[in-house]
Amino acid sequence: MSGRYDHLDESSVRERPSRRGSRPRTKDRPAHEDAVVGTVTGVDRGRFTTRLDGTTVIAMRARELGRTRIVVGDRVAMVGDTSAEPDALARIVRVLERDTVLRRSADDTDTVERVIVANADQLVIVTALADPEPRARMVDRCLVAAYDAGLDPLLLLTKADLADPATFLQNYTALDVPHVVSRSGPDGGLDSAGVEEVRAHLVGRTSVLVGHSGVGKSTLVNALVPDAARATGVVNAVTGRGRHTSSSAVGLELPEGGWVVDTPGVRSFGLGHVDPSTFIQHFDDLSPGADGCPRGCGHDEPECALDAWVADGHAGPSGRARLESLRRLLRSRTGEERDPD
Asked: What residue segments make up the domains of the chain, in order of their start?
């Protein structure tokens, strides 16, 4: 039985050209030896604002980086058009090794870390003494995050004209956390004396501002960097919560030198990525006493050897208060003492 294709032979078959081309594939990535290094100051929908030799360069992620996370504070190597012209677009081809990483998780049961900022060296924990009410557990969690990341903490208390800061500061006397107390100025912002005291702590450093909405972070940034134009909001009279005015982290260069990173207001600070057993390492006067603890001691239980260490005077006159502060931080991580959202 003959078919309609019997007259065809191999010469009648037309081969389609390969769309992949004839160039052999390779897994070797280009070295990009001509890349220049800048610092990421903003992230917005796949575009990265960077500072390079005093100019602002917009860049995108190179394909070879895949899903590599790039955050504010990252030092990145760029190629392409780094001229800083209005339509220029560079490519980020490499993220340099980070010195520090400030992280948080969605909640204490989530071990997936979310990087807030890279390469900072100071965490400024901003809290109002009233309107909204201060939450010591939130401050405790931020302190844990700072210790875990290797950042120096600075406590900034705003609106001291509405409440006495002495009572709140008693929670942190034993921790010897540096602090600045500021009153409200005539325009509703921070008073000039408070701004200047904060500025003295920030010059020459890379500092991250963290705190609830409505406590004055963006107001402070506008005072420190006059052309920042960060949006500010008010506190809801019914809920006592601030309105989110900053939608993303942004790094701003201080006129006197140094950087400040303003972050969106947070209502919770998950520490699911932090191992509580490492907390003791940040208490130099207590950590030697942990050598006598039973295996797996959480340092907040009857068998803990730290009680005897403190009672014997090894931790100095503030040992008992320091131990209670350590245990308060531990409880803030395990969720035994939590502020309502």
From this structure: 36-95, 101-262, 276-334
